[in-house]
Design a protein that fits this description.
There is one protein chain. With about 190 residues, the protein is mainly alpha-helical. It contains 7 helices and 5 strands, in the order H-H-E-E-H-E-H-E-H-H-E-H. The strands form 2 sheets. It has a 3-stranded mixed beta sheet. A two-stranded antiparallel ribbon has the order 1-2. Strand 3 (about 100), helix 4 and strand 4 (about 125) form a beta-alpha-beta unit. The two termini are about 25 Å apart. The mean pLDDT is about 95.
Length: about 190
């Protein structure tokens, strides 16, 4: 849903004309202006599993502008990732030590830094960011013997950039606490079937 929210900002609201513009717009402000965007367009999935939820923008004031909206859209992606990571850490008993990222949104430097700050772990982007297609090619290559083993594939992976956490623990807790309050506002929106 991360990319879907940026598309919604572009296609439904017309605030940006191309998805990459969201970062420039978000950089026009210092923070999210106190707003939190929960994109529960068709319910909330993991780790909440709430079909009754619907999207909300919480914390609106007259001060908020489109830069704050863009920033809140990007931050929603990172908050959703943190929700999943916390659930995985709890279920597995193993704490995340770093996050390797891929896909279209990893070119967004502001988002990647915020993700590192929120998770309090390094976020690592590879040289090749579209790893789904690469994985399919690797699987086909392994199947026909083009690559001899998985280790030969691991040697092909190259890091492009790493973002290190720089946010204070207090700020991290406050932001995530406000996100959780916004998420709760989405619950029980749909009460009729």
């Amino acid at each position: 849903m991360a990319g879907a929210l940026v598309q919604w900002l572009r296609d439904n609201l017309g605030i940006i004309t191309k998805a990459p513009e969201v970062e420039d717009l978000a950089r026009t402000v210092e923070d999210n202006g106190g707003i939190y965007f929960v994109p529960a367009f068709s319910g909330l999935f993991a780790p909440y599993w709430r079909a009754d939820a619907r999207g909300v923008i919480a914390g609106l004031t007259r001060f908020v502008n489109k830069g704050h909206m863009a920033r809140a859209v990007l931050e929603a992606s990172a908050f959703q990732t943190k929700d999943i990571v916390e659930s995985m850490n709890q279920d597995s008993g193993v704490a995340l030590r770093s996050l390797k990222v891929d896909g279209g949104m990893v070119t967004n430097e502001l988002l990647m830094q915020f993700q590192a700050d929120l998770l309090n772990v390094p976020v690592i982007r590879p040289k090749i960011t579209e790893t789904t297609a690469l994985g399919a090619a690797y699987a086909a290559g392994l199947a026909v013997g083009f690559w001899p083993d998985l280790e030969s594939l691991r040697r092909n992976w190259t890091m492009d950039k790493t973002w290190l956490p720089a946010m204070s623990p207090e700020e991290r807790e406050n932001k995530f606490g406000d996100w959780k309050k916004a998420v709760e506002r989405t619950f029980n929106w749909v009460d009729r079937q």
